[in-house]
TrEMBL record:
Domain spans labelled Pyrin: 61-147
UniProt organism field: Poecilia mexicana
Biased amino acid composition, Basic and acidic residues: 31-40
Record's keyword terms, sorted: Leucine-rich repeat, Repeat
Name of the molecule in the record: NACHT domain-containing protein
Entry-linked InterPro entries: DAPIN (IPR004020), DEATH-like_dom_sf (IPR011029), NACHT_NTPase (IPR007111), NLR (IPR051261), NLRP_HD2 (IPR041267), P-loop_NTPase (IPR027417)
Pfam families (alphabetical): NACHT, NLRC4_HD2, PYRIN
Domain NACHT: 231-367
Location of the region described as Disordered in the Swiss-Prot/TrEMBL record: 1-47
Highest rank taxon of the organism: Eukaryota
Length: 661
């Protein structure tokens, strides 16, 4: 393995080089080191350098890097050749190297850098190595400093791209100031978070052991690499779980020398960037070179990536619009050969390219596997925000400690919102809303509208979906939401929060799982050697929200009360058309038949959708041909729920906590 270290700045190199001399230098005369350099500028036997020092001058050629590179290079010489090297050095520069024969490698390199600049030291070493017929060792030194130049430029580009991130429209923050280290799990298919305010929900049965929690620095660490033979790692995570932020932070920490320094090169490529070449043939290396122009020098300088030297990260595999066919796609192993994007990605997932490099592929959990069944790879999964992570995120978003404390206390008082903050995207939306309140009035009252925030989450997921497939018509989009809502309501009536995929209704699993972000699929192992694919929603409360949305849109767009067929004592509806109060009465009556409270949050969401603020958010899903609508005041909703409770003889505190709709 070859060493390519991160470069210090020229100022740091100069400071390190001269710090000791400055303490003893005479104020009126030149330093000892300056005298030495002047004396050796006229060697007794002129050495003709194979390349002028100015030709390799570069900010990456620092004192620290040069010292390590020269030491590593000279260690490749046998003992006799090293003695010859020292003799040649003494022949051309007798004064600084008069005692060179007694010097070891460290002392010799130290004396060389005391006497000459970094550029001059490198060229003297290369020239003497060639003169003693060690061209291969001289070439190794050239390779080291060229790769270090490429690395330096790559680090600068990564810092430029990822040092700041957008947290909301028109507002950016330094990534280091906003990032919260969400642990990854060393195993995938861990399923959703099923914590719930009202219900006790169990996950699908499985015999698998949960994976270990890994920090960002531990993921793909040197220790990790030594324990696995897999060159590919799939990083799975729900929509909004922070996969892209994780990738950006990893690249930024590498560029700033904080972690993953065992990789000399890190390239981040989004599938969205690769999708620009769907209609053309292009090679993998052409894509890399277009995004990272400095990488072209690897080929033009006649270099290659050494074992585990380069890390390629492909972010957002679920954004690729086509399906993968591993059985009927031709095999390619040349990363420089042009091919269609489908062929390129299939062979990338097969592990055919760049056999010495490492690959990370991020994706939402796919409805159909995006990795070949016979491939050799590791799978890890993004975790969710812990309670400590939630508090840390809000403290980072709100720089005013008093505001941060208010937000944390407020969110904790709303149990469902606090639970849902396990999803980083939801945390971000909540923080955006509270920042808007503080901008309008620093002492303003923080909102408690739960339905409003879930609608914001749905709109955000729909927006992300539209950016991935703009051709998806509004009618198809609404149909998918209605299908998912009906599926959610059917499960809710049965008291279920997951279903085996083989028993799911006939809607597009590709759209529901891969692209909408509302559903997820994971594999369970109920028995040894028995695997079952399970479909569920992002979170049980998302299922309850989608069921309420289905009831609301059925009534709003189709004048249909979904409870007509399920409530025994049907309510007579007005001849002038359904009124929303009648829908609510039917929903309350249905809920009263469920003593376990399984429809409590569903009813809270449904009531919330009758409020003006939430209906305005839901306008994109309203059909223009629907009948006129009116808004319901919160006191009317409370009156309806209290009436249903009194008629049902049930406890209001247990079954109808509708204070935050």
């Amino acid at each position: 393995r070859h060493f390519v270290d991160q470069a210090l700045t020229p100022a740091q190199s100069y400071e390190k080089l001269t710090s000791e001399d400055e303490g003893v230098a005479d104020q009126e005369g030149p330093s000892t080191r300056e005298k030495t350099k002047e004396e050796v500028t006229e060697p007794s036997n002129q050495l003709e350098l194979i390349q002028e020092p100015e030709e390799i001058k570069h900010p990456s050629l620092t004192l620290q890097f040069t010292f390590k590179a020269l030491c590593e290079t000279l260690k490749k010489l046998p003992e006799d050749d090293f003695r010859m090297f020292k003799w040649k050095l003494w022949t051309h520069y007798p004064q600084p190297f008069s005692a060179s024969q007694s010097m070891d490698i460290v002392d010799l390199v130290d004396r060389l850098l005391e006497s000459f600049t970094c550029e001059m030291s490198v060229q003297i070493t290369r020239t003497i190595l060639v003169s003693i017929s060690k061209k291969n060792v001289a070439e190794h030194l050239r390779m080291l400093y060229i790769k270090n130049q490429i690395r330096h430029e790559l680090c600068e580009l990564m810092i430029q791209k990822y040092s700041e991130v957008s947290i909301t429209e028109g507002q950016t923050m330094p990534l280091d100031d906003i990032y919260v280290d969400v642990n990854t799990f060393s195993r995938s298919d861990n399923g959703p978070n099923v914590e719930h305010e009202v219900l006790q929900i169990t996950k699908a049965p499985t015999k698998k052991k949960p994976g270990d929690r890994l920090s960002l620095a531990e993921t793909l660490s040197q220790e990790w690499i030594t324990k696995t033979y897999a060159r590919q790692v799939y990083l799975y995570g729900l929509a909004g779980s922070g996969k892209s932020m994780f990738v950006k932070k990893l690249a930024l920490d590498w560029a700033r020398g904080r972690s993953h320094q065992h990789f000399s090169f890190v390239y981040v490529i989004t599938i969205r960037e690769m999708n620009e070449y769907l209609e053309t043939k292009i090679s993998l290396m052409d894509i890399v070179n277009k995004l990272y122009p400095m990488a072209k020098r690897i080929k033009t300088e006649g270099l290659r990536y050494e074992e585990n030297e380069a890390l390629f990260i492909f972010d957002g595999l679920d954004e690729y619009p086509e399906e993968f066919n591993f059985m009927r796609t031709e095999i390619h192993s040349d990363a420089s050969s042009p091919m269609t994007m489908r062929v390129l990605l299939v062979n990338l997932l097969r592990g055919r390219f760049l056999s010495r490099s490492r690959f990370v592929i991020t994706s939402r959990p796919h409805a159909d596997r995006c990795a070949p069944w016979d491939g050799h790879y590791d799978e890890i999964e993004m975790g969710s925000f812990s309670n400590a992570n939630k508090d840390e995120y809000f403290r980072k978003r709100f720089k005013d400690p008093n505001q941060a404390a208010r937000v944390i206390e407020h969110v904790k008082s709303l149990k469902t919102l606090h639970i849902m903050c396990c999803l980083p995207l939801f945390c971000m939306l909540l923080a955006d809303e509270y920042q808007r309140v503080f901008r309008e009035s620093p002492e303003g009252k923080l909102p408690t509208n739960m339905t409003y925030m879930y609608t914001k989450l749905l709109l955000k997921l729909v927006h992300i979906r539209r950016t991935r497939k703009p051709a998806f018509s509004p009618e198809d989009e609404l149909k998918l939401l209605m299908d998912l809502g009906k599926f959610a309501f059917t499960l809710l009536e049965k008291g279920q929060f997951h279903m085996n995929r083989s028993k799911c209704p006939d809607f597009s699993h590709i759209e529901a799982v891969n692209r909408s972000g509302i559903c997820m699929q994971y594999t369970t192992t109920p028995f040894v050697l028995c695997h079952e694919d399970v479909v569920c929603f992002l979170h049980p409360t998302v299922q309850e929200y989608m069921a309420a949305l289905y009831a609301y849109l059925s009534f709003r767009n189709h004048d249909k009360n979904i409870f007509d067929q399920s409530v025994k004592n049907k309510l007579k509806l007005s001849h002038k058309g359904h009124r929303i109060t009648e829908l609510y009465k039917a929903a309350v009556e249905k809920s009263l038949q469920c003593p376990d409270g399984k429809l409590d949050l569903f009813l809270r969401f449904l009531f919330g959708m009758g409020c003006k603020t939430n209906q305005e958010l839901l306008l994109p899903f309203h059909k223009p041909s629907a009948k006129p609508w009116f808004y319901v005041q919160k006191n009317k909703i409370t009156s309806l729920s209290n009436q249903g409770i009194s008629e049902g003889g049930l406890n209001a505190n247990t079954h109808f906590p509708y204070f935050y709709i």
